[in-house]
Amino acid sequence: MCHPQLTLLLARERAADLRRAAAARPEPGERLAGGQPTVTLRTAFPDDAQRLAWLAELDGARPLAGPVLIAEVGGSAAAAVSLSDFRTIANPYEPTGALVQLLLVRARQLHGSDVRSRRPRLARLRALFSS
User: Fold this and answer.
1) The whole model's pTM is what?
2) Which among 65, 27, 13, 19 is positioned nearest to 80, based on CA atoms?
3) Which tops the pLDDT comparison, 18 or 83?
4) What residues have CB less than 8 Å from 22, skipping those under 6 apart?
5) Is the pLDDT score of 5 beyond 70?
6) What domains are there in the chain, each with its CATH number?
């Protein structure tokens, strides 16, 4: 168990590290060196429903259901994938083929982490505590 002063000092340092990291990240819509817009992959929040409905309408598809992963380019939603059935929607007026592939790769990683990654970790923990 850590001393309370040490715990407080560690927490303050961690918070300072997070603030520095956040300050170094480009804002949505900023461009990286070379003029390329930033690309962000993130899970959808409830307030993204209207953006996802707009994207589905542009794509001529049904809105995605369940948990969704969104790709934003320069702060605007460009493509999305359902984490339930891997169905995708994308803005047909933008070059989104690579984004859709990136979303699918990440969605499969997240889907696989639910089952596969726990077992090896659990086995390592059991081995650690049994010795």
Assistant:
1) 0.62
2) 65
3) 83
4) none
5) yes
6) 4-130 (3.40.630)
